Amino acid sequence: MLSSINLYNRLFAFIAGILLFASCQKTTTINASAPNQPVAAAPAFERKISTITVPVSFQAASLENKLNQELTGILYKDDNLDDDNLAVTVSKIGKLGIRAEQNKIYFTVPLHIFAKGRWKWEPCKICPKIDKTESTEFDVVVKTESLLSFTQDYKVKTTTTSNFDWGATKPTLTIGPLQIGLARFVEPAIQDQMGRLSGMLDQEIQNRLNIRQYVQEAWLKLQEPIQLDKTYNAWLTVTPQDIRISPLQAANGVLNLRIGFNSFIETVTNGKPQVKVNPTLPKLITDNRLTDNVQIGLIGEVPFAHATQLLKEQVTGQTFKFENGKQQITVNNAEISGSGDKLVVMLDVNGQAKTGLFTKKIVGQVFLKAIPYYDAQTSSIRIREVDYDLKTKDQLLKTASWLAKGRFIHNLEEQINFPVKTQLEQARTLLQKSLDQSAHLNDNILLKGTIRSFTPDNIYLTPTSIKAVVNAQGNLMVQIVKI
Predict the structure, then answer these.
(1) InterPro entries annotated for this entry (predicted)?
(2) Distance (Å, rounded) from C-alpha 207 to C-alpha 200?
(3) Number of neighbours of residue 368 by Cβ within 10 angstroms
(4) Which residues 6+ apart lie within 8 Å of 125 measured at CB?
(5) Which residue has the higher pLDDT, 100 or 167?
(6) pLDDT tens digits, residue range 15-35?
(7) Is the pLDDT of residue 281 over 70?
(8) Burial (0-12, 13-18, 19+ Cβ within 10 Å), 47
(9) Closest-CA residue to 36 (of 338, 305, 446)
(10) Do strands 234-245 and 249-251 pair parallel, antiparallel, or not at all (unpaired)?
(11) What is the pLDDT of residues 294-331, one digit of tens each?
């Protein structure tokens, strides 16, 4: 009888223990849903304006040779005496000379002038009229000084002043044995002729310094994407915004100027970009402080699918323990997506928290939001300001407040990263290699430059990826091979 009572007591204790154990454990399922806000536009990604310079030079000697070939013999001839009683023939008798200093061109032109004048005299109404012509010829050296600048429509503007020196032969009038000097009488007529000659020289300068056709060609060609590498399908895009020109400067017989294309410059690695070419040249702007600094946006892209794979490798199967193991959470699965301007991290978890005899378990999915940023030290995309989505946080506060305290979040911030170092280094290498070898826009135009440094810019999201933008600083110029 006693043994039967002991058996019942043991059975009762066993059943009571099971019931007590069951009452001390409780499993809660988290039913949070993913944020459904679409990925916002990317206002944070601001392209930086850069200046691509085009150095242009003209040899003064070359211009001098061209003018000497084209301006030969008679430059001006007026045989008509009826309009002003003066006939003039102007001939070039020597080599035209050119000297260039700063923003001025100086011309010296040796000329021979033949002049015929008519004078009439009528002593009285009934007296016979006297109508007589006299001629003279002489040499002068015309000197002009032309100040050069450029107009908004890409034309050369010249402001020319002129003077002259008498040559070996001065104007005289021979009457029998007498020779009468006419220099002071002829000078006003010569001044009139110098204005005409200066106009001819100005026109030649404008014809020779015609930059519009070359600027137009460079403007169009710059807008065509340039392939940097076929293997990675990497391309450089230039979007010119305006055109500036430095004042003309001459040194050592060479006329120099720089044309600057203020542009947005980017590299992409996802195929040839589609661009709409703007054929219209903007107004030319004269800029005394024209620089050749460029900032090229290099983009490192991590698709969400790849980011998810990296995230799984970093956290899936890992158990995070707190309070000496009394609280722990295990990540079973993970996924990355975007919502608004933030990353969404989905974690499929199970965990538990022990308090005395009680154990509280949780299972389900939690959703966290984070701001991505580029970490220059590790060349990777990391996350900060991580917090639970509002719906997730609301459920955690009711069911697992210990998980909402932030220690788990801190561990995730320290651990999660998406490397883009390889992509950015490839982009830099490809860009510099192309610039070292001179990227051909066409047979006449080359793109050359040097990349000096890199500066992190920003992170922005697309519906399918995370993009890190790093600005490459350096200089870039267009070299016109044939001009």
Answers:
(1) DUF4403
(2) 11
(3) 23
(4) none
(5) 100
(6) 444 444 444 556 667 666 666
(7) yes
(8) middle
(9) 338
(10) unpaired
(11) 777 777 778 888 889 989 999 999 999 988 888 899 99
CB atoms under 10 Å from CB of 86, counted, come to 14
Between residues 394 and 24, which one has the greater pLDDT?
394
pLDDT tens per residue across span 218-275: 899 889 888 777 766 777 888 999 999 988 888 888 888 888 898 888 777 667 888 8
Give the distance, in angstroms, between the CA of residue 416 and the centroid of all CA atoms in the same chain.
Answer: 34
Under 8 Å between Cβ of 144 and 106: yes
Q: pTM (2 decimals)?
A: 0.60
Could you give the 3-state DSSP secondary structure of residue 443? Answer: coil
- List Cα–Cα distances, 156 to 153, 218, 260, 284, in angstroms: 9, 19, 17, 12
The three-class DSSP label of residue 357 is coil
Pairing of the two strands 327-339 and 342-355: antiparallel
What local confidence, expressed as pLDDT, does residue 174 receive?
A: 60
CB atoms within 10 A of CB 330: 18
Domains of the chain by residue range: 59-208
User: For the chain, how many helices (H) and strands (E)?
Assistant: 8, 25
- The full DSSP string for 34-67 is ---PPBPP-TT--PPEEEEEEEEEEEHHHHHHHH
* 109 contacts 142 by C-beta, under 8 angstroms: yes
Would you mind telling me the total number of residues written for the chain in this entry?
Answer: 483
Count CB neighbours of 453 within 10 A: 8
Cβ(99)–Cβ(143) below 8 Å: no
Least Cα distance to 349 among 370, 364, 334 occurs for 364
In sequence order, which ranges of 140-260 are alpha helices (DSSP H)? 183-208, 212-222
